[in-house]
Amino acid sequence: MVDLTVRFANVEFENPVIVASGEATTNFERMKKCVKAGAGGLVTKTVTTIREARRALRPRWAIVDKKGFPEIFTFYSIGVLSQYEPERFAEEVKRAKKELKVPIIVSIMGKEFDEWGYLAKLMDEAGADMIELNLSCPFMPETVKGTGRIIGQDPKLSAEVVKVVREAASIPIIPKLSPEASDLVEIAKSVERAGASAITAINRFMGIEIDIETGKPIIQSAFAGYGGPYLRGIGLRWVAKIVPEVSIPVSGCAGIMNWSHAVEYFMVGATTVQLFTAIVAKGYGVIGEIVEGIKNFMEQHGYENIEAMRGIALKHIFPLSQLPVSSFTLKIDEDKCNGCGLCVRSCLAEAIKIKTAGKKKVVIDDSKCEQCGLCITLCPSGALSIV
Ligand SMILES: Cc1cc2nc3c(=O)[nH]c(=O)nc-3n(C[C@H](O)[C@H](O)[C@H](O)COP(=O)(O)O)c2cc1C
Ligand code: SF4
Ligand code: SF4
Description:
This protein is of the alpha/beta class and 387 residues long. The protein contains 14 helices and 21 strands. It has helices spanning 28-36, 86-99, 113-126, 140-143, 149-152, 155-168, 184-193, 232-242, 259-267, 277-282, 285-301, 306-309, 342-346, 374-378; strands at 6-8, 11-13, 17-19, 41-43, 47-48, 61-68, 72-77, 104-109, 130-134, 173-177, 199-201, 205-207, 210-211, 216-217, 224-227, 250-253, 272-275, 330-332, 352-354, 362-364, 384-386. Strand 13 (210-211) and strand 14 form a beta hairpin. The protein is globular. 46% of the residues are buried. The structure holds flavin mononucleotide and iron/sulfur cluster (2 copies).
């Protein structure tokens, strides 16, 4: 029997799969759906004192690059924070605390320092188990100068917000970091020193897509939050970098579309994971599928609990300068090769050629092969390997 429970900043979660801040946790009814689907915890949609950030443009969401949907795509959104006034949202939190048996993490964002303190106190009193600080919303600086990711890009400002919230509330505080900062390790260390109890890494980037027929940005004339499955590698990178440098736990977030992605986050050191886009792409049911998938994987591999696999990949990550330069020869399995020519087209060294005569479909010229390894991962039939 595997044990999926985790202690995250001294709060116990029945399983480590948390729904990230977003529209899936925008009110009690949606929070309930997440819990019913198997979520171990919830981060609410960010509640704010900033009136302008509650203005919801219509339309505001789009799926772009959708050929691979629901596995591979970009989720494009013009932002808005919770449309509830904070005092009204506190009622949703109270109800959630009364009826849902999972930790409720309330995400907050203020403009001035005292607003951060006010929101933290309000949500602490409403019964929140933890507070997540949205220091990372990609589009907030476009709405109100100096907010959102602008704070999360500055280690001192981030620490100041943590200190203010620390004073105002007694529950654990989790700053959520922005990938737009140049060094998230520095930010993580700074918020830890200021009293943060844990860290969420990461939020999304800001981007834009242009409709070439009209020459205008798609959906609205503004920059957008730009995320999706592609973010996973970036989230994993920052979790892997932050975990060895701090002693507080990290919640890994971004690009998790299935259980194996969540396992990757544990293996680079995350204690819990958060996801939102997967719910938009696959429905609430994906939460339970991910929990079940993690459990099955752990059973099959003999991991008794999350801690047993947490961080196991870290000892295999080195600075590039420490990696040895070795060499290999490419081998082709002629029975597997279907002659599709993908490897021929992509080999910039022109080391693979299609052969029309004889049994062989392609031949490799070892003298030209630069051993980049690309064709091995590209081949759809697994015909190429290293000797
Ligand atoms: C439409 C949308 C709304 C979001 N709203 C919030 C928010 O209110 N507060 C916040 O901290 N993050 C917000 N996020 C960011 C997510 O919580 C999460 O960090 C990000 O999307 C990466 O995780 P994912 O790939 O699992 O979605 C939002 C993301 C999207 C796509
Ligand atoms: S390893 Fe790189 S250089 Fe060698 S054949 Fe494959 S793609 Fe070409
Ligand atoms: S990509 Fe693979 S299957 Fe296609 S030609 Fe090359 S070796 Fe053969």
